[in-house]
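Possible regression after last week's pipeline update?

I re-ran a chain I had predicted before the update to compare outputs. Posting the input and the new output here so someone can diff against the archived version. Not blocking, just want to make sure nothing changed silently.
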Amino acid sequence: MANEELYQLTKDGFDQVRAEVNQRLDQMDVRLRTVENSISELRGKESTIEGMRNWITIVCATGAVIISIAVAIFK
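New output (post-update):
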């Protein structure tokens, strides 16, 4: 085997390894992107729930004030 043939064989082997590594990195990137999207969705849902709790508290407090005023006026 001549040096040029050995060089070409080695180069082809490194190219194949590089292609496999790139493919695996691309797969990991897709998986990590999926995880990031899922975490973002969960955080969005969590902040929505907190916002709804605040609105429920505000509505209940406003209702209590209205009822208190109505009771004070009609008594």
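Follow-up from reviewer: compared with the archived run. The radius of gyration is 32 Å. Marking as no regression found.
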